[in-house]
Amino acid sequence: MPTSTAIFWPVIAQVALIHLIYFLMLKRRSGAMRAGTAKASDFWVPAIEPEPSATVARSLINQFELPMLFFLVCTLLYVTDGVNHVVVAIAWLFVLSRYAHAWVHVTSNRLRIRQRLFVSGFVLNFSLWLLFATHLLGI
Questions:
Q1: Which long-range contacts link 64-69 to residues 24+ away (Cβ below 8 Å)?
Q2: Which of 94, 99, 101, 128 suits a disulfide with 117, CB 3.0-4.6 Å?
Q3: What is d(CA 42, CA 59) in angstroms, rounded to the nearest whole number?
Q4: Torsion-angle region of residue 39: left (phi > 0), alpha (psi -120 to 50) or beta?
């Protein structure tokens, strides 16, 4: 069995993804302003934002939706001593699905691929919650 703190490595990796997306958004917004395709005021209203940075901004918003449930379940599993190899493996798979989802979102933005990656992350997240519930039930 891994040490219970092993659950925090996928959490750290997910937080790193959020920081990477923030950096990418800053880079794309700065690039749009330097190229003259946007001005600072364009970023006040998301509907005006240029497409290259708009997709990154939307990807960033995504990191504060489903991943918030991930952060919570990881914390709860740690607090209740519910961390095991299966939990850590699923947590890593969830994070990998989020990296892949973000990559597609900020590059090709192909909806069909993005949707499949989202659904896989959703199922993995749901699995963590089921494992947490069964842990609490002592099953």
A1: 64/18, 66/98, 66/118, 66/121, 66/122, 66/125, 67/14, 67/18, 67/98, 69/125, 69/129
A2: 101
A3: 18
A4: beta
Reduce the DSSP state of residue 4 to 3 states and report it.
Answer: helix
Token digits of residue 109: 């933005």
Residue pair 25/18 in contact by the 8 Å Cβ criterion: no
Q: What is the pLDDT of residues 37-81, one digit of tens each?
A: 888 888 887 677 888 888 999 999 999 999 999 999 999 999 999
Quick one: which H or E segment has residue 18?
Answer: helix 8-35
pLDDT digits (tens, 9 = 90+) for 84-110: 999 999 999 999 999 999 999 999 999
Chain position carrying tokens 């990418």? 24
Is residue 117 within 8 Å of residue 104, measured between CB atoms? yes
The closest alpha carbon to 4, from 91, 109, 120, belongs to 91
Beta strand extents in the chain (DSSP E only): none
